Amino acid sequence: MLDIQMAGLTGRDVQTQLAEAQIRIPIIFITAYDEPTTREQCLADGAFEYFCKPLAGDKLVSAIHAAIDQVRS
What we know:
By secondary structure, the protein is α/β, with parallel strands linked by helices. The protein is built from three helices and three strands.
């Protein structure tokens, strides 16, 4: 999971660096600062899921399980 706004690097920065290193893992973004353009970019660049805070715990848990299932298959 990555937050859009983190100290040092942004979640988008981390996503870009992982892609450049050809590390393909499911990324779940969580943010309190939702911007449609950022959401679109994250998802277009392969984010597994993108949530806005506050979010229901069951949605996050379901997304984590789905991401794990994707990695296993």
